[in-house]
Amino acid sequence: MSGSALEVDLDRLADNLRRVHEAVSPAEVMLVVKNDAYGHGLDAVVARARREGVGWFGAFDVITGARVRDLVGPEPRVFIWTAENEAQASLAVDLDIDIGVGDLRLFTALTGIRGGRTARVHLKIDTGLRRNGVRPEDWSDLVARAVAAEDAGVLSVEGIWSHIAEASDDEDDRARARFERALAIAADAGLRPRWRHLSASAASFARPEFRYDLVRVGAFAYGIRPAGGPEEAALGVRPVARWTAPVTEVGADTVRIGVGSRDGLFSTLVGCTVGTPAGPRRVTAITGSRVEVTRWDGAAVGDRVTVFGAAEDGATATSLAESIGTIGEEIAVRVSPLVPRRYRGMR
Ligand SMILES: *Cc1c(COP(=O)(O)O)cnc(C)c1O
């Protein structure tokens, strides 16, 4: 390995998936694979997760959903929640992709598709986040339209769902109350979809009443713990990715590492620690193509430094994120696609 590389341990992904499954069962698990599987590489992650028996994949957009469908074959469910236009919506239906519908425009487009398959729809209620989702005041109207469309054989309402902030229990409780009201209105109108889903990683683990039939999990499957939250060990998951880079130059006081902001490292991470063969060392500078850290005894060109990995490596995506007020996912998804992914456990 000459430059920086993202080492992705698929056996750990498999371990984490087992842990997630055990933590949320009997709810089913949707593995969220948006943003190139949080930077880990979509194809390898999906292939391994499929082997591990994952039955649902959360792909975000139609292009990703189409790729996932290609990788997993006809059986598993693939869920997307954004379609840019009617052509994309139509493609999603053709590929037997479940579609999260959070606005009337997409709903109407789906009812307009004729021939071929029946659209599988998950109606999204806005429970407070106000990004995509039908407002509570418009919910009864959407439900009535969905009942009519289902009766006409145009679509099938497979799910009702929402997304929550998972930043405070109080706020999440209020969101869940709104979700419950939306479910009750739908039930009164005759809709009893098989899949109710509300929570992502954090609430799925911590709060059983948020699990319903299906949980949408990204971060914890990749071993990324919440900023300010419990440690990986407490969650029972381990980071899947480790970003390493070589020592390129050893100076009197500093050591230069061959990775920089051009590779996707936030330049604001100056002052953080990274893992060296001699233990954690402070980052003193970040340029486009390199990082400087405080020197350690015996440092040699070619030694490898861990930018982020497991806690015992010196830094995790989340520990870096915490020092600049963001979340671990943001650190992971920024690793440039030009940084090679090297897989362990590929089979
Ligand atoms: C990203 C995302 C998730 C997964 O969230 P994590 O916190 O990474 O588990 C779930 N649902 C939706 C709608 C998302 O956009």
UniProtKB/TrEMBL annotation:
Enzyme class, spelled out: isomerase
Pfam families: Ala_racemase_C (PF00842), Ala_racemase_N (PF01168)
InterPro entries, sorted: Ala_racemase, Ala_racemase/Decarboxylase_C, Ala_racemase_C, Ala_racemase_N, PLP-binding_barrel
Cofactor(s) required, per the database record: pyridoxal 5'-phosphate
Keyword Translocase annotated: no
Keyword Isomerase: yes
GO terms, molecular function: alanine racemase activity
PANTHER family (UniProt xref): ALANINE RACEMASE, ALANINE RACEMASE, CATABOLIC-RELATED
Designated name of the protein: Alanine racemase
